[in-house]
Amino acid sequence: MNKKLIDDYKKFLDNGKTERECVVQIAKMAEEIGYKDINSVESLKPGDKVYIKKMDKAIALFNIGTENIENGMNILGAHIDSPRLDAKQKPLYENDNIVYMNTHYYGGIKKYQWTTIPLAIHGIVCKKDGTKINIVIGEDENDPVFCISDILPHLAQSQMQNKASEFITGEDLDLIFGSKVPEKEEKSKKKEKNSAKKIILELLKDKYKIEEDDFLSSELEIVPAGKARDLGLDRSFILAYGQDDRSCAFTSVAALLENQAEKRTCCCLCVDKEEIGSVGATGMASNLFENMVAEVISRCQNYSELVLRRCLANSYMLSSDVNAAYDPMNANLFDKENSSVLGGGVAFQKFTGSRGKSGASDANPEFIAKLRNQMDNANVVYQMAELGKVDQGGGGTIAYHAAKYGMNVIDAGVAVLSMHAPWEITSKEDICQIYECYKAFLKIDN
Ligand code: MN
Ligand code: MN
Protein backbone atom coordinates (compact mmCIF):
# COMPACT_ATOMS: atom_id res chain seq x y z
CA MET A 1 0.00 0.00 0.00
CA ASN A 2 1.33 3.40 -1.04
CA LYS A 3 0.38 5.28 2.14
CA LYS A 4 1.67 8.64 0.95
CA LEU A 5 -0.38 8.40 -2.24
CA ILE A 6 -3.54 7.64 -0.24
CA ASP A 7 -2.90 10.50 2.21
CA ASP A 8 -2.24 12.92 -0.65
CA TYR A 9 -5.35 11.70 -2.45
CA LYS A 10 -7.55 12.30 0.58
CA LYS A 11 -6.13 15.80 0.97
CA PHE A 12 -6.74 16.47 -2.72
CA LEU A 13 -10.40 15.45 -2.26
CA ASP A 14 -10.77 17.64 0.86
CA ASN A 15 -9.35 20.68 -0.90
CA GLY A 16 -10.89 20.02 -4.29
CA LYS A 17 -14.65 19.89 -4.09
CA THR A 18 -15.23 21.94 -7.24
CA GLU A 19 -13.54 21.90 -10.64
CA ARG A 20 -12.00 25.31 -9.89
CA GLU A 21 -10.53 24.09 -6.60
CA CYS A 22 -9.10 21.06 -8.42
CA VAL A 23 -7.50 23.28 -11.09
CA VAL A 24 -5.86 25.41 -8.38
CA GLN A 25 -4.43 22.30 -6.70
CA ILE A 26 -3.26 20.67 -9.94
CA ALA A 27 -1.49 23.85 -11.11
CA LYS A 28 0.19 24.14 -7.70
CA MET A 29 1.32 20.49 -7.70
CA ALA A 30 2.71 20.96 -11.22
CA GLU A 31 4.47 24.24 -10.47
CA GLU A 32 6.15 22.69 -7.44
CA ILE A 33 8.06 20.32 -9.71
CA GLY A 34 8.86 22.85 -12.41
CA TYR A 35 5.84 23.05 -14.72
CA LYS A 36 5.33 26.52 -16.18
CA ASP A 37 2.26 28.32 -17.47
CA ILE A 38 2.47 27.99 -21.25
CA ASN A 39 1.76 31.71 -21.62
CA SER A 40 5.16 32.41 -20.10
CA VAL A 41 6.98 30.11 -22.53
CA GLU A 42 7.89 30.94 -26.14
CA SER A 43 9.37 27.65 -27.30
CA LEU A 44 9.43 24.07 -26.07
CA LYS A 45 12.13 21.40 -26.29
CA PRO A 46 12.32 17.80 -25.09
CA GLY A 47 12.03 17.57 -21.32
CA ASP A 48 10.08 20.82 -20.97
CA LYS A 49 7.00 20.91 -18.78
CA VAL A 50 4.04 23.25 -19.21
CA TYR A 51 0.41 23.54 -18.21
CA ILE A 52 -2.53 25.26 -19.89
CA LYS A 53 -5.64 26.34 -18.01
CA LYS A 54 -9.04 26.98 -19.55
CA MET A 55 -11.30 29.38 -17.67
CA ASP A 56 -9.91 28.04 -14.37
CA LYS A 57 -12.14 24.96 -14.80
CA ALA A 58 -10.03 22.71 -17.00
CA ILE A 59 -6.27 22.18 -17.16
CA ALA A 60 -3.81 20.16 -19.18
CA LEU A 61 -0.19 19.35 -18.36
CA PHE A 62 2.36 18.51 -21.07
CA ASN A 63 5.82 16.97 -20.70
CA ILE A 64 7.61 17.15 -24.06
CA GLY A 65 9.27 13.98 -25.38
CA THR A 66 12.29 13.56 -27.66
CA GLU A 67 10.31 12.24 -30.61
CA ASN A 68 8.45 14.50 -33.06
CA ILE A 69 5.10 15.33 -31.48
CA GLU A 70 3.50 14.46 -34.85
CA ASN A 71 3.97 10.79 -33.87
CA GLY A 72 1.45 11.20 -31.07
CA MET A 73 1.29 11.61 -27.31
CA ASN A 74 0.44 9.40 -24.35
CA ILE A 75 -2.58 11.09 -22.81
CA LEU A 76 -4.31 10.58 -19.48
CA GLY A 77 -7.71 12.28 -19.60
CA ALA A 78 -9.94 12.66 -16.56
CA HIS A 79 -12.77 14.92 -15.49
CA ILE A 80 -12.86 17.08 -12.38
CA ASP A 81 -16.56 17.97 -12.16
CA SER A 82 -18.80 15.88 -9.91
CA PRO A 83 -22.55 15.63 -9.33
CA ARG A 84 -23.81 18.28 -6.91
CA LEU A 85 -26.40 20.99 -6.41
CA ASP A 86 -25.82 24.46 -7.90
CA ALA A 87 -27.34 27.61 -6.42
CA LYS A 88 -29.84 29.20 -8.78
CA GLN A 89 -29.08 32.71 -10.03
CA LYS A 90 -31.81 34.19 -7.83
CA PRO A 91 -31.32 31.78 -4.96
CA LEU A 92 -32.57 33.32 -1.73
CA TYR A 93 -36.19 33.39 -0.66
CA GLU A 94 -38.03 33.39 2.61
CA ASN A 95 -40.82 31.02 3.53
CA ASP A 96 -42.42 31.34 7.00
CA ASN A 97 -39.29 32.75 8.64
CA ILE A 98 -36.90 30.26 7.10
CA VAL A 99 -34.57 31.58 4.42
CA TYR A 100 -33.89 29.01 1.72
CA MET A 101 -31.31 28.75 -1.02
CA ASN A 102 -32.92 27.54 -4.22
CA THR A 103 -30.86 25.02 -6.18
CA HIS A 104 -30.68 23.29 -9.55
CA TYR A 105 -28.97 19.91 -9.43
CA TYR A 106 -25.98 19.16 -11.66
CA GLY A 107 -25.38 15.69 -13.08
CA GLY A 108 -27.11 12.41 -12.36
CA ILE A 109 -28.15 12.23 -8.73
CA LYS A 110 -30.67 10.28 -6.65
CA LYS A 111 -32.30 13.36 -5.17
CA TYR A 112 -33.45 11.79 -1.92
CA GLN A 113 -29.80 11.07 -0.98
CA TRP A 114 -29.14 14.80 -0.59
CA THR A 115 -31.62 15.46 2.24
CA THR A 116 -30.75 15.61 5.96
CA ILE A 117 -26.97 15.57 5.50
CA PRO A 118 -24.62 18.47 6.30
CA LEU A 119 -23.84 20.45 3.16
CA ALA A 120 -21.19 23.05 2.34
CA ILE A 121 -21.16 25.84 -0.21
CA HIS A 122 -18.10 26.29 -2.46
CA GLY A 123 -17.70 28.68 -5.35
CA ILE A 124 -17.21 32.20 -6.51
CA VAL A 125 -19.21 35.38 -6.69
CA CYS A 126 -18.14 37.84 -9.39
CA LYS A 127 -18.73 41.53 -8.76
CA LYS A 128 -19.44 44.08 -11.47
CA ASP A 129 -16.07 45.74 -10.83
CA GLY A 130 -14.30 42.52 -11.85
CA THR A 131 -13.43 41.26 -8.37
CA LYS A 132 -14.02 37.61 -7.56
CA ILE A 133 -15.00 36.50 -4.09
CA ASN A 134 -14.08 32.94 -3.20
CA ILE A 135 -16.59 31.22 -0.97
CA VAL A 136 -16.12 28.10 1.16
CA ILE A 137 -18.62 27.74 3.98
CA GLY A 138 -19.13 24.51 5.90
CA GLU A 139 -15.74 22.81 5.84
CA ASP A 140 -14.00 24.34 8.87
CA GLU A 141 -15.27 22.79 12.09
CA ASN A 142 -16.24 26.25 13.31
CA ASP A 143 -18.24 26.98 10.15
CA PRO A 144 -21.99 26.57 10.00
CA VAL A 145 -23.30 23.99 7.53
CA PHE A 146 -26.47 23.85 5.45
CA CYS A 147 -29.13 21.20 5.08
CA ILE A 148 -32.17 20.13 3.05
CA SER A 149 -34.91 19.01 5.40
CA ASP A 150 -37.23 16.03 4.92
CA ILE A 151 -40.61 15.25 6.44
CA LEU A 152 -40.65 13.13 9.61
CA PRO A 153 -41.77 9.48 9.18
CA HIS A 154 -44.80 10.17 11.38
CA LEU A 155 -46.26 12.35 8.63
CA ALA A 156 -44.78 10.60 5.61
CA GLN A 157 -47.72 8.32 4.80
CA SER A 158 -48.37 9.86 1.41
CA GLN A 159 -44.71 10.66 0.65
CA MET A 160 -43.78 7.01 1.10
CA GLN A 161 -46.35 5.98 -1.51
CA ASN A 162 -44.52 8.00 -4.18
CA LYS A 163 -41.81 6.65 -6.46
CA ALA A 164 -38.26 7.33 -5.24
CA SER A 165 -37.69 9.59 -8.26
CA GLU A 166 -40.62 11.72 -7.17
CA PHE A 167 -40.78 11.93 -3.43
CA ILE A 168 -38.15 14.65 -3.40
CA THR A 169 -38.39 16.70 -6.59
CA GLY A 170 -35.71 18.96 -8.06
CA GLU A 171 -37.60 22.00 -6.79
CA ASP A 172 -37.71 20.49 -3.29
CA LEU A 173 -33.91 20.49 -3.06
CA ASP A 174 -33.70 23.85 -1.34
CA LEU A 175 -31.18 24.48 1.35
CA ILE A 176 -32.00 25.88 4.77
CA PHE A 177 -29.82 28.99 4.71
CA GLY A 178 -30.92 30.91 7.82
CA SER A 179 -33.83 32.24 9.84
CA LYS A 180 -32.61 35.17 11.84
CA VAL A 181 -35.28 37.62 12.94
CA PRO A 182 -34.17 40.78 14.75
CA GLU A 183 -34.94 40.85 18.45
CA LYS A 184 -36.75 44.16 18.50
CA GLU A 185 -39.09 43.00 15.76
CA GLU A 186 -39.89 39.87 17.76
CA LYS A 187 -40.75 41.96 20.78
CA SER A 188 -42.97 44.34 18.89
CA LYS A 189 -44.67 41.35 17.20
CA LYS A 190 -44.77 43.54 14.13
CA LYS A 191 -42.72 41.41 11.78
CA GLU A 192 -41.91 42.83 8.41
CA LYS A 193 -42.45 40.55 5.45
CA ASN A 194 -39.07 39.12 4.35
CA SER A 195 -37.38 40.25 7.56
CA ALA A 196 -35.36 37.05 7.97
CA LYS A 197 -34.06 37.31 4.41
CA LYS A 198 -33.14 40.94 5.06
CA ILE A 199 -30.97 39.92 8.01
CA ILE A 200 -29.31 37.19 5.97
CA LEU A 201 -28.54 39.66 3.18
CA GLU A 202 -27.00 42.04 5.71
CA LEU A 203 -24.83 39.18 7.02
CA LEU A 204 -23.72 38.36 3.48
CA LYS A 205 -22.82 41.99 2.87
CA ASP A 206 -20.94 42.31 6.17
CA LYS A 207 -19.00 39.10 5.95
CA TYR A 208 -18.53 38.54 2.19
CA LYS A 209 -19.28 41.96 0.61
CA ILE A 210 -22.00 40.30 -1.48
CA GLU A 211 -25.18 42.12 -2.54
CA GLU A 212 -28.23 40.11 -3.54
CA ASP A 213 -27.78 41.02 -7.22
CA ASP A 214 -24.24 39.59 -7.16
CA PHE A 215 -25.75 36.09 -7.10
CA LEU A 216 -26.64 36.75 -10.75
CA SER A 217 -22.95 36.39 -11.52
CA SER A 218 -22.07 33.63 -9.08
CA GLU A 219 -21.20 29.98 -9.41
CA LEU A 220 -21.94 28.37 -6.05
CA GLU A 221 -21.80 24.61 -5.71
CA ILE A 222 -23.44 22.79 -2.84
CA VAL A 223 -21.55 19.67 -1.85
CA PRO A 224 -21.43 17.30 1.12
CA ALA A 225 -19.61 18.96 4.05
CA GLY A 226 -16.67 17.14 5.59
CA LYS A 227 -13.48 15.31 4.83
CA ALA A 228 -12.60 12.04 3.14
CA ARG A 229 -12.60 9.21 5.69
CA ASP A 230 -11.21 5.69 5.94
CA LEU A 231 -14.04 3.19 5.70
CA GLY A 232 -14.13 -0.20 7.39
CA LEU A 233 -12.44 -1.48 10.52
CA ASP A 234 -9.42 -2.53 8.48
CA ARG A 235 -9.46 0.87 6.72
CA SER A 236 -9.39 -0.77 3.29
CA PHE A 237 -11.83 1.69 1.71
CA ILE A 238 -12.19 5.44 1.32
CA LEU A 239 -15.54 7.17 1.83
CA ALA A 240 -15.56 10.60 0.22
CA TYR A 241 -17.42 13.01 -2.01
CA GLY A 242 -16.39 13.43 -5.65
CA GLN A 243 -14.36 10.26 -6.19
CA ASP A 244 -16.02 10.14 -9.63
CA ASP A 245 -13.77 11.27 -11.12
CA ARG A 246 -11.21 12.88 -8.84
CA SER A 247 -9.84 9.43 -7.94
CA CYS A 248 -8.67 9.13 -11.55
CA ALA A 249 -7.86 12.83 -12.00
CA PHE A 250 -5.59 12.90 -8.95
CA THR A 251 -3.78 9.66 -9.78
CA SER A 252 -3.39 10.74 -13.43
CA VAL A 253 -1.81 14.02 -12.38
CA ALA A 254 0.36 12.29 -9.78
CA ALA A 255 1.51 9.71 -12.36
CA LEU A 256 2.42 12.40 -14.90
CA LEU A 257 4.32 14.45 -12.31
CA GLU A 258 6.25 11.36 -11.23
CA ASN A 259 7.02 10.42 -14.85
CA GLN A 260 9.81 11.84 -17.02
CA ALA A 261 8.79 11.83 -20.70
CA GLU A 262 11.18 9.89 -22.89
CA LYS A 263 10.28 9.41 -26.57
CA ARG A 264 6.60 10.31 -26.63
CA THR A 265 5.23 13.56 -25.25
CA CYS A 266 3.11 12.85 -22.16
CA CYS A 267 -0.04 14.73 -21.29
CA CYS A 268 -2.59 14.81 -18.51
CA LEU A 269 -5.89 16.50 -19.28
CA CYS A 270 -8.49 17.33 -16.61
CA VAL A 271 -11.76 18.61 -18.01
CA ASP A 272 -15.04 19.95 -16.71
CA LYS A 273 -18.69 19.18 -17.58
CA GLU A 274 -18.38 15.43 -18.12
CA GLU A 275 -21.30 14.83 -15.79
CA ILE A 276 -23.64 16.81 -18.04
CA GLY A 277 -22.44 15.52 -21.41
CA SER A 278 -19.04 17.24 -21.79
CA VAL A 279 -20.75 20.31 -23.25
CA GLY A 280 -19.57 23.90 -22.85
CA ALA A 281 -16.25 25.66 -23.39
CA THR A 282 -14.53 23.69 -20.62
CA GLY A 283 -15.94 20.29 -21.62
CA MET A 284 -14.38 17.63 -23.86
CA ALA A 285 -16.95 18.09 -26.64
CA SER A 286 -15.56 21.59 -27.26
CA ASN A 287 -12.34 22.37 -29.17
CA LEU A 288 -10.49 22.99 -25.92
CA PHE A 289 -8.11 20.04 -26.18
CA GLU A 290 -7.13 20.53 -29.82
CA ASN A 291 -6.60 24.23 -29.12
CA MET A 292 -4.31 23.34 -26.22
CA VAL A 293 -2.34 20.87 -28.34
CA ALA A 294 -2.07 23.51 -31.10
CA GLU A 295 -0.49 25.88 -28.57
CA VAL A 296 2.02 23.20 -27.62
CA ILE A 297 2.87 22.26 -31.23
CA SER A 298 3.35 25.91 -32.20
CA ARG A 299 6.06 26.12 -29.53
CA CYS A 300 7.75 22.86 -30.58
CA GLN A 301 8.05 23.39 -34.33
CA ASN A 302 6.48 25.15 -37.31
CA TYR A 303 2.78 24.81 -36.73
CA SER A 304 0.52 23.31 -39.35
CA GLU A 305 -2.94 21.88 -39.03
CA LEU A 306 -1.72 18.63 -40.53
CA VAL A 307 0.80 18.22 -37.71
CA LEU A 308 -1.97 18.84 -35.18
CA ARG A 309 -4.24 16.27 -36.81
CA ARG A 310 -1.48 13.68 -37.03
CA CYS A 311 -0.44 14.30 -33.46
CA LEU A 312 -3.98 13.71 -32.20
CA ALA A 313 -4.66 10.72 -34.47
CA ASN A 314 -1.39 9.03 -33.48
CA SER A 315 -1.96 9.52 -29.76
CA TYR A 316 -2.87 6.90 -27.18
CA MET A 317 -5.25 7.83 -24.44
CA LEU A 318 -6.52 6.34 -21.24
CA SER A 319 -9.85 7.92 -20.50
CA SER A 320 -9.22 8.00 -16.77
CA ASP A 321 -12.70 7.48 -15.43
CA VAL A 322 -14.34 5.34 -12.81
CA ASN A 323 -16.51 2.28 -13.31
CA ALA A 324 -19.45 1.01 -11.28
CA ALA A 325 -18.24 -1.45 -8.66
CA TYR A 326 -19.96 -4.83 -8.53
CA ASP A 327 -22.41 -4.49 -5.65
CA PRO A 328 -23.11 -7.72 -3.73
CA MET A 329 -26.29 -6.11 -2.33
CA ASN A 330 -27.57 -5.63 -5.89
CA ALA A 331 -25.94 -8.61 -7.55
CA ASN A 332 -28.86 -9.10 -9.94
CA LEU A 333 -27.96 -5.85 -11.76
CA PHE A 334 -24.50 -7.09 -12.74
CA ASP A 335 -22.97 -9.76 -14.92
CA LYS A 336 -20.44 -10.69 -12.25
CA GLU A 337 -17.82 -12.12 -14.63
CA ASN A 338 -17.83 -8.87 -16.60
CA SER A 339 -17.95 -6.47 -13.66
CA SER A 340 -15.26 -4.62 -11.75
CA VAL A 341 -14.99 -5.63 -8.12
CA LEU A 342 -13.69 -3.39 -5.34
CA GLY A 343 -10.08 -4.29 -4.64
CA GLY A 344 -9.75 -6.01 -8.03
CA GLY A 345 -7.31 -3.43 -9.37
CA VAL A 346 -7.62 -1.23 -12.44
CA ALA A 347 -10.96 -1.43 -14.24
CA PHE A 348 -10.57 -1.25 -18.03
CA GLN A 349 -13.77 -0.67 -19.92
CA LYS A 350 -13.55 -1.57 -23.61
CA PHE A 351 -16.71 0.38 -24.30
CA THR A 352 -19.28 2.47 -22.45
CA GLY A 353 -22.69 3.47 -23.82
CA SER A 354 -25.96 1.71 -23.16
CA ARG A 355 -28.27 -0.96 -24.59
CA GLY A 356 -26.47 -2.32 -27.61
CA LYS A 357 -23.34 -0.18 -27.05
CA SER A 358 -25.24 2.91 -28.17
CA GLY A 359 -23.01 5.98 -27.82
CA ALA A 360 -19.91 3.87 -27.15
CA SER A 361 -16.32 4.35 -28.14
CA ASP A 362 -15.26 0.72 -28.55
CA ALA A 363 -11.53 0.33 -27.97
CA ASN A 364 -9.50 -1.64 -30.53
CA PRO A 365 -8.23 -5.07 -29.46
CA GLU A 366 -4.83 -4.22 -30.96
CA PHE A 367 -4.56 -1.34 -28.49
CA ILE A 368 -5.85 -3.45 -25.61
CA ALA A 369 -3.21 -6.09 -26.34
CA LYS A 370 -0.52 -3.39 -26.17
CA LEU A 371 -1.90 -2.25 -22.81
CA ARG A 372 -2.10 -5.82 -21.46
CA ASN A 373 1.55 -6.28 -22.31
CA GLN A 374 2.52 -3.00 -20.66
CA MET A 375 0.43 -3.70 -17.52
CA ASP A 376 1.73 -7.26 -17.14
CA ASN A 377 5.32 -6.07 -17.46
CA ALA A 378 4.67 -3.49 -14.72
CA ASN A 379 2.83 -6.01 -12.49
CA VAL A 380 -0.35 -3.94 -12.53
CA VAL A 381 -3.48 -5.80 -11.40
CA TYR A 382 -6.40 -5.14 -13.72
CA GLN A 383 -9.85 -6.35 -14.66
CA MET A 384 -11.91 -5.87 -17.83
CA ALA A 385 -15.41 -4.74 -17.00
CA GLU A 386 -18.74 -3.43 -18.18
CA LEU A 387 -20.91 -1.08 -16.16
CA GLY A 388 -23.75 -3.51 -15.42
CA LYS A 389 -26.13 -5.90 -17.09
CA VAL A 390 -26.71 -5.18 -20.78
CA ASP A 391 -30.30 -3.97 -20.48
CA GLN A 392 -29.98 -2.19 -17.13
CA GLY A 393 -28.71 1.18 -18.33
CA GLY A 394 -25.31 2.61 -19.04
CA GLY A 395 -23.25 5.73 -19.17
CA GLY A 396 -20.62 7.63 -21.08
CA THR A 397 -17.21 9.15 -20.44
CA ILE A 398 -14.95 11.49 -22.40
CA ALA A 399 -13.54 8.55 -24.41
CA TYR A 400 -15.76 8.99 -27.44
CA HIS A 401 -14.90 12.69 -27.67
CA ALA A 402 -11.21 11.79 -27.82
CA ALA A 403 -11.93 9.01 -30.32
CA LYS A 404 -13.25 11.52 -32.84
CA TYR A 405 -9.64 12.61 -33.48
CA GLY A 406 -8.88 9.04 -34.52
CA MET A 407 -6.74 8.16 -31.54
CA ASN A 408 -6.72 4.85 -29.69
CA VAL A 409 -8.57 5.32 -26.42
CA ILE A 410 -9.96 3.10 -23.68
CA ASP A 411 -11.53 3.83 -20.30
CA ALA A 412 -9.33 2.93 -17.34
CA GLY A 413 -10.21 3.78 -13.76
CA VAL A 414 -11.19 2.40 -10.41
CA ALA A 415 -14.42 0.73 -9.32
CA VAL A 416 -16.71 2.94 -7.23
CA LEU A 417 -19.51 1.75 -4.98
CA SER A 418 -22.48 4.12 -4.51
CA MET A 419 -21.25 6.13 -7.49
CA HIS A 420 -22.83 9.61 -7.74
CA ALA A 421 -24.03 9.42 -4.11
CA PRO A 422 -22.95 12.24 -1.77
CA TRP A 423 -20.39 9.85 -0.28
CA GLU A 424 -18.79 7.38 -2.68
CA ILE A 425 -16.69 4.33 -1.86
CA THR A 426 -13.39 3.22 -3.42
CA SER A 427 -10.76 0.70 -2.43
CA LYS A 428 -7.35 2.03 -1.39
CA GLU A 429 -5.66 -0.86 -3.16
CA ASP A 430 -7.39 0.11 -6.41
CA ILE A 431 -6.21 3.73 -6.04
CA CYS A 432 -2.64 2.42 -5.73
CA GLN A 433 -3.06 0.12 -8.74
CA ILE A 434 -4.52 2.81 -10.99
CA TYR A 435 -1.59 5.08 -10.15
CA GLU A 436 0.82 2.30 -11.22
CA CYS A 437 -1.29 1.71 -14.34
CA TYR A 438 -1.10 5.36 -15.38
CA LYS A 439 2.65 5.45 -14.79
CA ALA A 440 3.13 2.30 -16.90
CA PHE A 441 0.93 3.72 -19.66
CA LEU A 442 3.01 6.90 -19.89
CA LYS A 443 6.08 4.72 -20.59
CA ILE A 444 4.64 3.26 -23.81
CA ASP A 445 7.06 4.29 -26.55
CA ASN A 446 5.87 2.73 -29.78
MN1 MN B 1 -16.89 9.87 -14.38
MN1 MN C 1 -20.12 10.37 -13.24
Give the SSE layout.
Layout: H1 3-15, H2 19-32, E1 36-37, E2 49-54, E3 58-63, E4 73-79, E5 84-95, E6 98-106, E7 119-126, E8 132-137, H3 164-167, E9 175-178, H4 183-188, H5 195-208, E10 218-224, E11 229-231, E12 237-240, H6 243-258, E13 265-271, H7 288-300, H8 305-313, E14 316-319, E15 323-324, E16 346-349, E17 353-354, H9 365-377, E18 382-384, E19 394-395, H10 399-403, E20 408-413, E21 415-416, E22 424-427, H11 428-442
Parallel strand pairs: 1-2, 4-13, 4-14, 14-20, 15-21, 16-18
Antiparallel strand pairs: 2-3, 3-13, 5-6, 5-10, 6-9, 7-8, 7-10, 11-12, 12-22, 16-20, 17-19
Helix pairs in contact: 1-6, 2-6, 6-11, 7-8
Bound molecules: manganese (II) ion (2 copies).
Residues 79, 244-245, 274, 321-322, 397 line the site of one manganese (II) ion.
Q: Could you explain the architecture of this structure?
A:
With about 450 residues, this protein is α/β, with parallel strands linked by helices. It has helices at about 5-15, 20-30, 165, 185-190, 195-210, 245-260, 290-300, 305-315, 365-375, 400-405, 430-440; strands at about 35, 50-55, 60-65, 75-80, 85-95, 100-105, 120-125, 130-135, 175-180, 220-225, 230, 235-240, 265-270, 315-320, 325, 345-350, 355, 380-385, 395, 410-415, 415, 425. The protein is built from 11 helices and 22 strands. Strands 1-2-3-13-4-14-20-16-18 form a 9-stranded mixed beta sheet, sandwiched between helices. The chain has a 6-stranded antiparallel beta sheet with strand order 8-7-10-5-6-9. Strands 11-12-22 form a 3-stranded antiparallel beta sheet. Strand 7 (about 120-125) and strand 8 form a beta hairpin. It is globular and about 75 Å long. The structure holds manganese (II) ion (MN) (2 copies). One manganese (II) ion (MN) binds near residues 244 and 420.
